[in-house]
Amino acid sequence: MSKPMILSIFPGIDVLGLGFEEAGYTVVRGPDPMCGSLHDIRRFHPPAGVFRGVIGGPPCQAHSKLAAVVRARYGEEAVAEDLIPEFSRVVAEAAPRWFLMENVPGAPAPHVKGYAVHTFLLNNRWLGQVQNRLRRFWFGVRGSTPVDLRPYIRGWVALEPAAWSPAVLASGAYRGGRGKVRLSAKRGPSRATVREGLRLQGLPEDFFDKSPFTVEGQQRLVGNAVPLPMARTLAEAIARWEEETMNDQPETQYEDKRCAICGQVFDPAEMVEVEEDLWVCETCAVNEYGWQPIPEELLQE
To answer: What integer pLDDT is reported at residue 232 of this predicted model?
Structure first.
């Protein structure tokens, strides 16, 4: 039996994707700015109906607390571009069964037509881990009924561990409850901060041994990643939800919601049967078949 295939966008070192691989998914990795300017998400157009799910964490700089400081001091043009709309576009084009987006707690929600979205906060320490890392997740599913993923999560702890460490940051600092502290007296990232960051993120210390990245690059990548235990926990939760609810539904239910022309997914109420067993969205029905919707006043009569 083949493994379900998912698409990971904005992957970075893709620790989120590693968690899904450990949970039994096959992960295809999409473009990321770290690979060069030609790996631009705006140039990327995935095929429709190929991937079971889409995962990813768009760059968070536009929604971090520092963004307000940058905006006030240097102007709007100095603030990093918001790429969450690009995440939404890729999901709409890929038309998966579900998607999972990760970002900072204050980031706006993705909006994808035809999907219901539930959002929740998750701290690494709530899963029994040492690092205090709070992130927000959005889980979107086809249809109009959102799914709360939290009941499918295993590993909640009643009491957080006595051991505690502040969140790993891309700068080489570690954010705690009273600001930032460094693990090294050396200014900026160092091999020591990278090793400690890898450990706190659930990765082996030799993770970067064969990579060409500088120490600064390594620190930035590990500081922007999702902790591996958190990623694995979420992947396993989605797998449980799929096993419980989605595998019992015939695949044709999902196909009926996809426009035969543009390939995007719509609510069944927004679909038109233009020929026998050929369903398209209202826009394509108008443009390609000259279909005219029934006037609202006639429906009221």
So the answer is: 98
